[in-house]
């Protein structure tokens, strides 16, 4: 039997594929793969069979280099399996077990080639042993690499979930509210990092379009600190709004923040007011409205009158 | 960086020899960015950067090509663009990257701006050899 | 070569950019607008860019130039309808179009021009101060 590197390996896998598959499945089941109930046996079987088929194809065409294009499909399927496990809440260990539990069935299959050679005499056994040792090492390296790949995808899937949740939270925590026809307010609360400022900026600008708002008040009363980067983001937001045809007023810059910003050399080159109420008054004037006193009995709310 | 699946998703090489080609580059980059799942702001950023660099290739480089690749890294997807010309090259890259520096009566914003609009930016240029600029934007 | 149509509406000129413009088309628009302002004595120019998916440095510079030239010829220019993603990108690119006035949409832009016409003969470069929130130098 030719035992030339992966040619022999591919052949071994092809010859013993059924045993490898059932041993692999049995190992995973006994390892508790189905216990959480997140995956059914039939699904696991399909995943294993598909992966093993593609791994064999890869070995046939691409040797044992996991970077070879021949392993592209196998890696895609593996990525899919890892990704879905990441989403379904499997632990890293459970996910890694998919690839790593394939090692033993593979080694067993390789050892069988030595047993098969036993009938052919001592020389054949020695040759088969040497080939098996080499193949075992190659399989170990290959599966380790694939295992790492699986973990990378798994971690990324989890990171994506976290990032998405982070975005959802920051969207939730930054409501753009309408104060008047054409006047929006964005009351910011909490620390502004780059990511969040970006989300805020986009949702403010989109709301400006949706509501045809001419003026947006960005209130930072609830922001504990403003660093240089945040200040720059604010300025960019103001500049972008202006390009779209809307004006921004920044309100609620606390004394310490103003001081820090001046020390940092960042000056907010925008209209700013001490309080949201002051900013609102300016906004109303700009759109040609004024707040006037009305007799209490007649109207509970202030009456806005047209300027002209 | 680039992985095996790049090949699977394919690359396109477009010639840049006229201002119509610049429009075509923008359109190709837009559709790749949409396919990679980039949001509207990220799409706009990479298309704008592509427009700047394609114009540089055309005007300063005397024409050339762009390779448009759909790339992935783990589950991240993105678009990578490589602009290449065999024009005069850039003698002082740092100077060329400065906002406001131009030798052609432009605004001098193209190079520095496209760097700001990308997640990855690489420039390789030498007088007499030509210029190669590679940028990428990830989801 | 095709050109972008310029409509005349009373004392104002109206341009709607609906195509992904190549550079020659943008340059032609700049020339045509200059000619039409001079020929018609228009006092206001409205450029609607709500269909544009990007504004790069070339188109940005064209808008800046049109605004500056028309001001010299006694007309004010307002650019309307810039999309959020385009505005964010333009700021990142480094172009703030400080000399260009802007409005959210055509309706608001026309109202702005209407107010300029009411307030003077267009020789008043800064336009009305109060209520005119969107001056480049306003605030
Ligand atoms: N492909 C290129 N080949 C040779 N020189 C280049 C190339 N790209 C850029 N340059 C040089 O770098 C300078 C800066 O480029 P940049 O794109 O920033 O500005 P610009 O093209 O002059 O003006 P614009 O703001 O209109 O893009 C150019 O003026 C040119 O001298
Ligand atoms: Mg340029």
UniProtKB/TrEMBL annotation, chain C:
Matches recorded under InterPro entries: Bact_StressResp_Reg, STAS_dom, STAS_dom_sf
A Pfam family this chain is assigned to: STAS
Domain of life, source organism: Bacteria
PROSITE patterns in alphabetical order: STAS
Protein name: RsbS, negative regulator of sigma-B
Residues covered by the STAS domain: 1-113
Protein source organism: uncultured Acetobacteraceae bacterium
